[in-house]
User: Fold these one by one.
Assistant:
Number 1:
Amino acid sequence: MKKIAVIGTGYVGLVTGACLAELGNTTICIDTDADKIEALQSGIVPFFEPGLQELVARNQRSDRISFTVDAAEAISKSEIIFIAVGTPMGEDGHADLQYVRSAARTIATSLNTGSRAIVVNKSTVPVETGDLVSAIIRESLTDGCSVSVVSNPEFLREGNAIADFMSPDRIVLGVYDDESAAVMRELYAPLVAPIIVTDVRTAEMIKYTANAFLATKISFINEIARVCEKVGADVKDVVLGAGTDKRIGTAFMNPGLGFGGSCFPKDVTALASIAQKYGVTPTVLEAVLQVNLEQVQLCAERLEGALETLEGRRIALLGLAFKPNTDDVRESPAIKLVQALLDRGAQVHAHDPEAIATARQMLGDSITYHSNVYESLKDADAMVVATDWNEYKQLDLDLAARVLRGNVLFDTRNIYDPRVVLEQGFHYLSVGRVAYGATAPVGQLVYEIKK
Ligand code: NAD
């Protein structure tokens, strides 16, 4: 059992703190946001992540997890200190490390004289950040203290975070010394997963490489979908046919609105910046970002084509979160689509099972929010599925067709069976699926019954 402090109680920090507590450790979670800490102290998780509320409550009852704004007190009691603060995109594309620097300074000034601690960087950070954190801590470290920095990038996915933390594909540890590696191996021993131990810079590079590759798959398949539309092929079958090759795989090969969220856009941009800094031209990464940038605009244009104009049109938008099972709207393609529709004069009526409050912080009163999905559809000229929540897959399409004013259904996530929606009388648009026997003009894709 270890005494652990986690700095930052966002998606990564809170999941890390709660899961390590569940494994029998004592964790103190720290945040500078006093409202967040107050909510957590009274058992409320201030964001939506399936199962997290219950996990936190259970460990709170067993006194294995606690929450504080008093970083110095928490750090002074801990053997392992995780940094899990945000690393947003800086103005020039580089990761903004101000929160990491601040956490490192707090650690240095909070350790008791003579103590030994391991500082674990879980935030996604550019190569050399381990060196930077070590240098900052060394600068202000109290006499007799010893600190070793470890890079332990996190690969969890929002919406599945607990399962991903508890059953990871691998655990990556970038270390400066064998002793820290041994302590970290012991900490993660209850998890059944391969542990990959590397130097710190390699571990930092692994995280960026993983995210950049996944983003590349998404932009790649979006580009393929564009070609499929033109040549009259069905991208879903193309993915199945190509992706069943073990060397390729079907994961992250779903065309749609492009990638978003708090990680991929900033991490691909940051990796491109690192490459440039070291004199490497990031040709592939720049193309990945470019395809992604275009995708939402292309979808807005497609909808405009189907409705002739978006000026004054009422659009029901299903989904605001950047993906299902989260309330996170950071860099959400659905939010970008809302903005593109508003720019073209549309009125947007949106629904999301979890992300209305977070979307409202971003979009204010520029759109109308509905807690009932059918209310959002009422009298709309078109319905657009922007996030593939299960709730939308199970939608009563017959009722939807009756409450809508128009009949355009833009399924940007390809969640419906075209044969079913066509039978409901919809004018169906999807991404990368062909217009078999299309009756619509070129460029306005209608999938009609294939067999
Ligand atoms: P987040 O924005 O949800 O949470 C960060 C938290 O840190 C906030 O609550 C903030 O108040 C707090 N904070 C900032 N500075 C602090 C300080 N000096 N002391 C105490 N608290 C401080 O961020 P997140 O989504 O959890 O991401 C954290 C890091 O993990 C990022 O680098 C991100 O790229 C990476 N990551 C995120 C995910 C994900 O799915 N969200 C997955 C893997 C890795």
Number 2:
Amino acid sequence: MKILVTGAAGFIGANFVYYELGRFPDDEIVGLDALTYAGNLETLDEALKNPKFKFVKADITDAAAIDALFAAEAFDLVINFAAESHVDRSIEDPGIFLRTNILGTQVLMDAALKYKVPRYHQVSTDEVYGDLPLNRPDLLFTERTPIHTSSPYSASKASADLLCQAYLRTFGLPATISRCSNNYGPYQFPEKLIPLMIANCLADKPLPVYGEGLNVRDWLYVVDHCKAIDLVARSDRIGEVYNIGGHNEMTNIDIVKLILKALGKPESLITYVTDRKGHDMRYAIDPQKITTDLGWAPETMFADGIVRTIDWYLTNRDWWERITSGEYLAYYEKMYGDR
Ligand code: NAD
Ligand code: DAU
């Protein structure tokens, strides 16, 4: 099997590459990435030592480059992780989100059709469902929940998701789609909640909590997400959409306090800042369908996963300290400077 993994130098894409190389040593993997601010080739250092892995620097919106790659390699499976992924950045500059997340997906699907790739998997997100109220803990997102988006990021991901369904129905693209909740784990860029709070804690910097910190996310250890995508993409369930979630709802403030405690830092570092515009209140996934159809269930308890994640950031300071210089410093100042 030859697999194209787009967004391979990002957080989930890289974790997926390592999962596949470990689990299916005979498969060949081509990791593609444009190496935007969020992509880091260093993350793939170990994978690059494996003769079954090859890296290609390319932009998924570059139709000529993607066509040439598909012509040269006979892919059996394409998994599209490549995206602009940070909600706050989408509020500052929506354009790049529409280009990469929508048009890039179209370019990949056109190539998959042209070269008759037997399987395409679109990595979507639970943000396509909008949010749930805090006072209705009985409500969960199912695959039948209407698409209803809040941010330019989620609107662009929903557009790609719908476009994938359109290619499936209109052109017969043999596709599957997964919609996962918030991931955490190694190699996550420190602009996202958990690594940002760990990095700030270690530097004794203020921990910027949006609004009152009462927003709820359903956290899943990244390797559990990778296992789920692998199961869906290798299954015979063409045309299906699967929700993936951790059954692990937590408020942001509880996560922040847990990180402070684990690192032995005072709660006085918490700073409540202006809320995110259009901030989704609560995400909660019902993953029953993937459990029933494919036998998937989250394996890593949050209590273990968060300790593993904090340890990873403690022992891999070089990795995140290098990427939190340069462009990231300017971003941080712009987003948090006078918030
Ligand atoms: P990330 O930002 O860490 O990684 C995205 C990668 O895509 C980066 O390496 C970046 O360089 C690359 N990329 C960006 N634009 C590109 C382009 N035009 N061409 C080629 N590569 C490009 O994001 P992530 O958290 O790893 O998310 C991966 C995917 O999973 C995204 O599609 C995201 O929407 C989805 N997702 C993420 C989460 C989460 O909690 N992080 C949850 C559900 C779904
Ligand atoms: O649910 C899946 C989505 O999860 C993915 O599709 C996105 O790619 C991913 O970025 C993530 O989106 P969120 O917006 O939920 O993640 P983020 O880490 O940006 O924020 C998590 C929560 O923490 C959210 O309620 C906002 C809050 N927050 C975030 C940051 C960066 C803060 O309070 N302070 C912060 O500094």
